[in-house]
Amino acid sequence: MSRRDTSQHGTSDVAIVGGGAAGLSLAHRLARSGTHTVTLVDAPDGPLRPPERTWCYWDRGAGDLEEAISASWSRLRVHGADGGDVTVEPEPLRYYMLRSARFERLVHSRLAEAPGARVVRATVHAVRSVAGGAEIRCSGHDGRKLTLRARRVFDSRPLTVLPPARTLLLQHFRGWFVRTAADRFDPAVADLMDFRVPQPGHGLAFGYVLPLAPDRALVEYTEFSRRPLGTAAYEAALGHYSRKILNLGEFTVQAVEQGVIPMTDARFPNHLGPGVFRIGTAGGATRPATGYTFAAVQRHSGAIAAALRKGRAAMPRPHGRRALAMDAVLLRALDTGRIDGPDFFTGLFRHTPPERLLRFLDGGTTPWEEWGIGLRTPLGPMLRTAVELPFLPRRSHGPTGIEPRHRESSR
């Protein structure tokens, strides 16, 4: 066939665009159920494929993701800006880490075993609604044009422009996978937030340490602010954190990863037309006030799979209205500087039962539990922010330049 020819492939029940956390997770759920034919459209090898990423989340068990888990921790620690720390054991929850390449291998193996499931390596150019569903216009690695049809398409490609919002911060970070000359880490404890790092003029900053062995760890520097840093600034911050605060001594950097996650109260439309839906960060899965995404993606994928099994036309949203409303208030309070970010998050871990706090950060608490947590926050600044928020206009913030990476619960 010539490069101008278009190849038609049979219609699937479901097509998923993108092989990131959201696309892989939904494909995994649907392959397990076996009730629908599934096509996962992922970018071919080359510049469009992102580098390997780290995804983390907390849950009661690894479940069907166990084969992809690289490490887990039952104890979590937060260091306050004053140097004090709090260590919690949120039993029965554990904090899990997986790497994208290992998760991709797991999902692809499940798809290979599932009848009616396939992976297509192609660059997607357009997704549009057509009679009876939707179609995906794409091209293979050799440039050959492809048209894929499905009754429903779930698109996880990142947005180049975010919807209008009242508040937009970016969670941006750079991390080193380090190996130290001597044992420097406690593999039993993960440091979620270390506020002993110098704080920026706007927003907040913290270190993040996932120990993989006594002499190996992922060490990151993270900011919540309006603009990402340059590589040199991240490297300087990581060097200061590793050498002056963690006192790692001699070490080597074995790998590097970097990313940006939107933290916004924008309204993400998840239904783009008959048969076309957005998922992942593009569909609003990222928690506005924390950047947590991966656990929400797992729950959302399960809810979508259940809706498809029941034959529903409407698809569920990743977060409830109450959780988004609370996040909008906290995000605005952080952005305006009405609350001190390091003190706020450290206080939550010091004064809230850990299992309840993690469920709260995931949007899994009851109104009564949320009321109790709210009483431990700065009431005046939070109430002032809640009162003004409905009167603030939503405005466009222009191109994001975001290449999402999801640690959960992003983190």
From TrEMBL:
InterPro entries: FAD/NAD-bd_sf. Gene3D superfamilies: FAD/NAD(P)-binding domain. SUPFAM superfamilies: FAD/NAD(P)-binding domain. This is FAD-binding protein. The lineage of its organism: Bacteria, Bacillati, Actinomycetota, Actinomycetes, Kitasatosporales.
